[in-house]
Amino acid sequence: MSQDNLPIEHLYFTENDLEQILENLDVVRQQISPKISEDAVINEQSFPSVCLIGLGRCGSNIALDVATLVFNARTSYLSELEYQQQKAHEREMEPMRWIRRHLPLDDKSRTQPVFLIEPIVMLGDLDKDIEGRIRFSNQKGRARFLNEYRKLQIMDLSEVHAGGAGNAPILGQYLAKIILNKDTASFRNDSWRHMHSYLVDSCGIKANQSRLYFYIFSAGGGTGSGMASEFGLAQQFSYLSKTFDYKVVQNQQVDKRHSFVFEPIFTSGICILPNISGHNLDISEALHINAGRLLTKYISEEWNFSYNEEREEDEVPADVMKRIRPWNAMMLISNDIMRYAEQENGKNSQDIDVNTMEKYANQYISQQIFNILTAQAVTTDYDEDYFRRAGIDIAETIRLDANDLFMSLAGPVAVAYAESVVSDNVHQESVNIDDLFCRSIDLPHFNDDTSAIEGISILPIESEHYRESIQRYRASGFDPSELNQLHFYKNCSSIVSIISLPRDYKLSFTSLNQLKVHLNRLCPNTTLKRYALVIGASANLSLTTLVAKSPCLSDDFLTLMVAYMKRCFAKDEYRFSDDIDKTIIDLIRSDEFDDSLIEQYFSQYENPAKILDTNWYAIKPMYEKKYRELIEDQQRFVSINDIRLDIDNVKNAIRYLREIYRHRISKTNILTLNDNVK
User: Fold this and answer.
1) Are 413 and 331 in contact (CB under 8 A)?
2) Full domain range(s) for residue 192
3) Which residues touch 643 (CB under 8 Å, ≥6 apart)?
4) What pLDDT, in 10s, does the model give residues 426-456?
5) pTM recorded for the entire structure
6) Domain total for the chain?
7) What is the SS3 string spanning 255-292?
8) Which SUPFAM superfamilies match (predicted)?
9) Do 654 and 543 lie in a common domain?
């Protein structure tokens, strides 16, 4: 699809010159690849299969924390390994050294296995001083990390905007649209042109081996919440537009790097939801409205992309391009997890330090990213000697590649996590699999043995009721009837479970089967279940379960979404009553969808002025002038009015909730032609 024929909804700039794309990729590859021999060819170096994109202050901090943890773990592991090999060298003869290096004849003083995949990490913010904020951080070891972790790339976007988005997602979205609609060649900062080719222009093609992209951001802010979905849409638009450009397929090139044979990519938003309940919290707070806007926007786009049947059967690609959504899935992690964890420790949630809460919430998110990435990591993502040195038989591992996740996960996703300490002298049967599973779906809490944060990332129902349900679940001997009628579990469409083992620990078939039984009973209507077994990437036995689609029926999700609709869409006479709350619940539950009720309660477009303390109508022309100055082609002008959510977004979001609310499966019956068989 040529640049001149782009749908009016999407004016994202995409580089069409393949030679220029490949040249830009080579620049990025040279920046991120470790030093190689002089006779090596730079374009033969593969990109990591994973890219983390941290947007806004919260998102960039989390992505940076993940990269720092990876770097520190790898440094510690290799340093210890070098020391052990040096001792072995002093006491062993040459033949024995060869055997030791090629066979897993390890002694009991081995170092613990660690996660060694090194993703590309891209950090972006509308803060002019993002690089200074990162480089002058006083975190221990940060200076060395920044010098040596070459895969960290900072997106300096200050020439478009040198301040934040003022806690208004629509401004963050509009500024991101300016950045992504502007020709990359017109940026003074050359590095953006190169990173744009990596992130947007080349996704899915042979020359770019990255297949998984995780966008990390806070839903309650302005910059991350607004920019993330726009960046995701630009990437999806570029990917799909090249997919539908059939002329590229016919263009045969001698150089294989020129081939546009596409492979599936999996993109996910990792969305940090704000605190939603508790003392001294007002439900109409701007953070909640911002998060509600993002949730409404995403599930309405997901409905339009995946479920909307009001379309022509011979739909042309251009129509598909108008209905794209920013990510395949969006993982939901509530900031409330730290409040629950502190309460489990007997502390008063009102006295929890805000910085401590953010620190531990970031730790929880980092844990989930680790486990998701290990489940799909390919051998080229690891240190080249990792498997050989660690004594891991790669044939024993089961991984989930981008296509597995692409086909298994869609829409809103929740994360359940728990881990148990195991050691060489511990028998398999000593690990309580029932307890491990229950801890993974429990309210968030600290694991005193591992210092990990365990539990569900977003609660299915209000915390006190859920705590009582979990207690009854344990007391009943794990009777699933205590939980499997909650919509969060009953209406779940797909599950992905990742089991990570230390290299010397063998999980028995009985234990693995018990985990599957728990999942089958807890989620009786799940259409698709996928499992990944990762060996040697963890010092503990850990279980990560991704629950797809049904989290949109959780109390937190509904509360945030309806809070936004009431504040920014409701007509004046309904804005502060509970009429809309009751109506939306009724619309989700009722057999027929009466969209005339939406027309009755809501205005045609969202009103951003309802969450700002300044004059929105004075702000709007300021930002539109910035657009006209930076993108001179008037045919490519987009008004802020054009990116407002409208009443169709509200209708489609409710249609999506209705679809998930009615999710069921039919049991397979045994058929026979033998009448005499009873």
Assistant:
1) yes
2) 12-33+46-81+111-227+234-245+316-326
3) 170, 173, 174, 177
4) 445 567 889 999 999 999 888 888 777 889 9
5) 0.86
6) 3
7) CHHHCCCCCCCEEEEEEEECCCCCCCCCCCCHHHHHHH
8) Tubulin nucleotide-binding domain-like
9) no
